[in-house]
Amino acid sequence: MCEYPNPLATGAQAEWTLTCLKKEIALPSRAGVGGLDFNAYEVMEPRRPGATPAAARNGARVKHNNVPPEGVYLPNNNRLAPHMRSPDYVQMSTAAAITLGVMPGKMHRCSCTRCLNLLLTYPEGCRANCAYCGLARHREADRDYADRNFIRVDWPAVPMDEVVEIVAGQGEATPFHRMCISMITHPRSDEDTVTVLRKWTRRVDPATVPVSILSNPTTMSRADVQQLRDLGADIFTVALDAATPGLFDRTRGKGVASPHSWAKYWEILEDARDIFGREKFGAHIIVGMGETEHDVLTLVQQLVDMGGHSHMFCFFPERGSLMDHLPATPRDQWRRVQLARYLIDYRDVRVAHMRFDDMGRVADFGIPKVELDKIIDEGVAFRTSGCPGKVREDISACDRPYGDSPPSNIASYPFQPAAVDIRKIRHQLGLEEPGEAYVEGEELEV
Questions:
Q1: Is-contact 146 89, C-beta < 8 A?
Q2: What is the pTM (predicted TM-score) of this model?
Q3: Rama region for 150: left / alpha / beta (φ>0; ψ in -120 to 50; rest)
Q4: How far is the C-alpha of 168 from the C-alpha of 159, rounded, in Å?
Q5: CATH code given to domain 53-415
Q6: How far apart are CA 411 and CA 392, in angstroms?
Q7: Phi and psi of 442, rounded to 5°?
Q8: pLDDT score of 440
Q9: pLDDT tens digits for 160-197?
Q10: Are 181 and 197 in contact (CB under 8 A)?
């Protein structure tokens, strides 16, 4: 087994080679590369993006053939995608499309989703190149934008007017607790977000279905943030995703020929704090891209101290991304961070109350065991985190079913965990109760 030095050290002490990490050894079922129970920085190196042929750049195939759209478009890589553009068209997750009733299907152990997430769409696609994202620019040669997977699922494209018509017709009976407009990096993204928001609020009362904005800070100004608030948006979020400036640059900035910068993202996040106010802004964070648990929880604490919340995702190697060859976040790491984040966000525990080992892992959650056991058994800490719905503040409307894991090994629970799920969670945390041993695979039979 390779010895792992303190990752917070610098210089020669922090050297740990990829060769050592990838030694073939017998691994525990929960372990990551090299027998670790976390994804180390040295492991999580994205591939370098390759050059895109000129004939495939900026949606050239779709624009040249100019196939007109005909209603709902279901992603299909065996045909040329129609020429669809926001604000006339938006994409939505498979779960949202099923819930809306524009495509058939069902989700394992849950009734799809309570958040209607609308993604802006253009033939040119997103002009950023984030290493972990299926929508990234480097995929131009391989898939048209409307056919690319994102957080593990396909995103059907639907006329915006049809979306509004369906939800407005449902009135108070709508299954959606929230709508979210997800911006992308595109020259028209700011203007079209305003148009989509106006189309929505003209027909759907934000008091019935509140609106969140998942922003694109790279193209935005403070005035843009203010305008979205003035038009009725309720919550504003920034997808920091990476927990540190170095990881941000490696995965979404210069390291992958992408335009984003940590400084600009924080500028817009601080504008959102000022304009939207306490409890009405937040940041997305992906766990397991090479940060330490101390890194990510320090960021969580910073957001809480600002008056905001963290919305947390478990890293999963997205098919077609520059990180699709890398390991998903080990469940040990994920559960520790998931639980600690919940305590900081909703139970007034501070990161300073917690104790971390010399690898930056949570060694003590900072509260008495009896209290910790009660929170674990309640299960809410392990549900998907995101903008709140209509149940309670710590239960997200944006439940993203299986967006960061397969149903066979759930990371973020899109439903209330049952007793068998809690046993599995305790097993992953290494906190099993006497006589409550988890049997591998038993939750799939529930």
A1: no
A2: 0.90
A3: beta
A4: 14
A5: 3.20.20.70
A6: 21
A7: -65, -30
A8: 67
A9: 999 999 999 999 999 999 999 999 999 999 999 999 99
A10: yes
